[in-house]
Amino acid sequence: MKKEHSEHRLLMSSVTEKKECSGKDKRHGGSSVTEKSPELAFQDAHTSSGEGMLSGTAEDIYDRTVTKLLEQEKKSVVKDSSEQVKSEERRLTKQMEGSKMETNHEICRNDLITFTASEQTCDLTAVNLSMNDSEVQKSRQWMSKEFLVEESGKSKCEVACFIKAPSTALENLKCKIVNDTSSLVVDDSEELVSNVISIECSDYEKTIPFPINIAIPFTSCFRGSYREIMVKLTDVNFQSHYLTPISLEGYQGKHKETFAEVKIYQLGVFSVLSCLKKETFTVPKVGLSQKLSMDCRISFCYHPETFSSPAPMQLKIQPVEPSLVSALKARYDMYHSVVSTSALVYVQHPSAQPFNRSVTITLPCPPNPEKKRQDETEHARAISATVKRVATVCHPRAVGASVRKNGENPSDTLKLLGHRNKEEGWKVFDDVIVQNARNGLVSFELNEHLESFVVIRLSLLLENTYLLLFAQALEKGLCSTMANVILYRKRENPYKIVVLLSASKELAGELQKLHEEGYFGPPEPTQQFPLREGEQVHFRFRGNIFASENGKDFGKVYRLIFHSQRKPRLELQIKEVDEFGNHSSPHYKGTAVFYKITREMITKKWEQPLLYGEYRHQSPLCKLALTLPKQEKLINRPRSTKRISSDSPEAIWDNLLYWLAEELAEDNTSLLALCLPVRRSVLQLVRLKCPDNLTHQIYELLCCWKKTLPRSADKQQLLSHYLRKSGRSDLSEELRFKWQNKVFT
What we know:
alpha+beta, 15 helices, 34 strands, 27% strand, disordered N terminus, DEATH-like_dom_sf, Death_dom, Death domain containing 1
């Protein structure tokens, strides 16, 4: 019985192995299998040829298995006596023949069921594979998609970015512009040059096949050799990573703009920044003389054995504008002896190896311009004096003795300031000797690592305390920009205003653009004040005027975020709070109050709400006064008492005065030439109100003059008199003709 059981187990394992092999072969095949009944399936298994899975039937499996079992049994019995073998063989043969039909039937039945189930499994697997193949093929197909986003407060859609990714991934990505959070993505010495965009996956169960490419449009007004374009990725925890663009192409699809394209491995908030260019190099043991690519005048000479092992170095250069030094000198008298400064150098030394030898550093530091002019004068005097001399032998000596190279004046003092780390702060290194080199260059030797340093040229000695204060003011000034707030209103519609932040150096250009759009003052722009990149200016309206962004929600707080290369701007609608207020004035009066919000005051949250009462204990940055003209109210009277009148005298005079202003403007008549008895302040106000339009200036002046007259005065006779006095008798006669004949158009 044990042998019979072992035979049965061998048979079943063989059938199972054959079934699994058949299933594998079928799955590797390209044809699909349809579901059939067990009888038909078994019949097909006998008749089919060429199919690997159907090549062996249940009977063939049984016969081969029984034969192997008999051979193994015979081999085991040979060890006994031949008689025992024969008797045992007869007994086994009879038993096998008796159970052959039952076993064969059971095996065939089990194999048919297994075969049918395998066939159904193969059918479903083939269908799933065909579906998966199409999805895989679709996921491998890369496409470029344009994401158009409607920014809050704007009706026009703009391109947020282009994304290149598999088509299945593009379906699950969503993009939006989040410029309200731009304060959270910039640091000092960084300038935002694009929208801040957020890219998320709409279906969190889907996985994005990273890496994918995104291209963000940006506009960089000025870059220079010290700056480069980088893409900054900020995650939900405000951890930032900088990505170097793989291209800065001017075309994406049909759009002609400058795009920064990067390869990304995660989603988040993206922004394009103009950053200080970073230069990286490694100092070997044998030493290195490195001239920086951004400015070849700056060099670092590392002597052999300066470091015990190769040391990587990272440098950034922040140039210092002479205008900044002049502004600091004008603001603080104690800095009057500062002539110029070198660029501010930032150095990162990751290995932190000590200096075995000193490093020679060369920097440009402009010479004293007054000494330069003095040297040029001495040079010219020396040449003229030498020409007059008869003895030409002394000529070379005279010139050589009189001429001094620029920047080598012994009265100038050079000081090195720097700090080892930000915690220690600035320090004056009196033990480091800074020497003048040729053509306005200075050099010195440094035997320790400094995170940042600068060289200051002085015309007179200055105490170290003032030098440290100057270094702090210089570093703070490099991170800030002088700016102004502009609040202008539409000339045709005084209820529509525009508020924007502008860098002071670009103020004239911004005012010209606003005039071309039809926006004018008053009020005039505010006084300039310093703002760092990403700092905010919040404002609200007080008095009898408030504003709305959409014409519905009035009385809110508004925000402008300063970025030196972007122009934050808001277009608002204003109206009076109380139509019966300011009853003693022909205008409604109000004030726009502005508050400065530093980056340290901004909470690190992606949602940035504007709260109305958070400025209660804060002094305002500046204020601008506003007025709104009162409109004449139309009174609906009963029909019995309704007055019927001809054209209003005011409308008649408005037409006449505007016609007269146009005639005078054609001859470029100046305001003073009109000889009208008005104050000089009225002339100044008219010029400020209409700076670029002489017709409007003359019209405003005539209106101001008319308002000063009593109601009983003969305006036509007086105006004709002043026109004759101004030498315009022709216009005086024409004015009299129009008034008498009632020609007012």
